[in-house]
TrEMBL record:
This is DAGKc domain-containing protein. InterPro entries: ATP-NAD_kinase_N, Diacylglycerol_kinase_cat_dom, NAD/diacylglycerol_kinase_sf, YegS/DAGK_C. It comes from Devosia insulae DS-56. Pfam families: DAGK_cat, YegS_C. SUPFAM superfamilies: NAD kinase/diacylglycerol kinase-like. It comes from the Bacteria. Residues 1-131 form the DAGKc domain. PROSITE patterns: DAGK. One of its GO terms (molecular function) is kinase activity.
Length: 315
């Protein structure tokens, strides 16, 4: 049984926490049943930066994110800075990192698997000194995501129709923009696009494997250029992603890089970073930080490709 002491940062407003009734008291009880000591920060009234500082100062051996992907990314930065492992109790909507690492996404299964979890080193991406675990997107997507954020907490048919209406209107008004793209090992070039995404490692294809990364340790970033995104393009891409055949779509261009600089005419660039809408100072300087983060995750099945520890270099 795992005996690591955890400091837990709980996002009590995440979808999973509210749906399952996850509180600090319940987390204390669940871990105590297994003989694991924890400290839990569930104080949503404090600024999140202060809560991260508390995590940084905690004497706990490992940090645990109990929330969505945004909480995971924020706490990962603390884990890297303090040389500790990060555990992920997925309580968000997408839970992308947990799914890539085959971390169970139900509470019962997660606690059943906890005793078998072990540290695994994975890559992280960095843009202008800020880390990301999944991807950074500029262009069309952040505006759509911002509208979705306004509807957060408003479930039901009316909210879905409102978002769909905004999505269609947004697509009809999209304009391409010029971006100068300079890979570390290449010459600058000008591209006209509607969106640019830079992902931490590459997204694979496969039936139902939407935004799934088979490897998190290749030490590469994937640059995706979306040339245009009309309504018919969006519908076709969505279908191809579900069917696992999207990589050769005519509106996409992909490139693997270790570092890249993206310049646009704007000095301030609105972006979606791991699901959160942020404003970044241009130009955007991306690089990969290979194996920078230690994450507690279940062992990799021998038959499963990817997500394996790299072999030590000879000599």
């Amino acid at each position: 049984m795992l005996q690591t002491k955890f400091h837990i940062v709980l996002n009590a407003n995440s979808g999973g926490a509210t749906r399952l009734g996850i509180t600090a008291e319940r987390l204390h009880g669940l871990f105590a049943e297994r003989g694991i000591a924890v400290s839990v920060d569930a104080d949503a009234s404090r600024p999140f930066a202060e809560r991260l500082q508390t995590a940084r100062n905690s004497p706990a051996e490992a940090l645990l994110s109990a929330g969505g992907d945004g909480t995971v990314t924020a706490l990962a930065e603390v884990a890297i800075a303090t040389g500790r492992s990060l555990a992920v109790l997925p309580l968000g909507t997408a839970n992308l990192l947990a799914r890539d690492l085959t971390i169970p996404t139900t509470l019962e299964a997660w606690f059943e698997a906890l005793g078998e979890m072990a540290p695994r080193r994975i890559d992280v991406g960095e843009v202008n000194g800020q880390i990301f675990l999944h991807k950074v997107v500029i262009g069309a997507v952040p505006g759509i995501a911002a509208a979705r954020e306004k509807l957060r907490g408003h479930d039901g048919f009316a909210a879905r129709i409102a978002f769909l209406g905004h999505f269609v209107r947004r697509l009809s008004r999209l304009r391409r923009f010029a971006a100068e793209i300079t890979p570390r090992s290449g010459e600058p070039r000008i591209e006209r696009v509607q969106s640019i995404a830079v992902a931490n490692n590459d997204y694979g294809e496969g039936l139902g494997q939407v935004f799934h990364r088979p490897r998190l340790d290749e030490g590469m970033l994937s640059l995706y250029l979306l040339r245009q995104l009309r309504l018919r393009d969006a519908l076709r891409l969505a279908t191809e992603m579900v069917l696992g055949s999207w990589r050769n779509d005519e509106v996409l261009e992909m490139e693997s890089v270790r570092a890249v600089v993206v310049r646009t005419r704007r000095s301030l660039v609105r972006a979606m970073l791991d699901g959160e809408v942020v404003t970044l100072q241009g130009p955007l300087r991306f690089r990969t930080l290979p194996l920078a983060l230690s994450v507690l995750a279940p062992p990799v099945a021998e038959a499963e490709p990817g997500l394996v520890e790299p072999e030590p270099e000879a000599g």
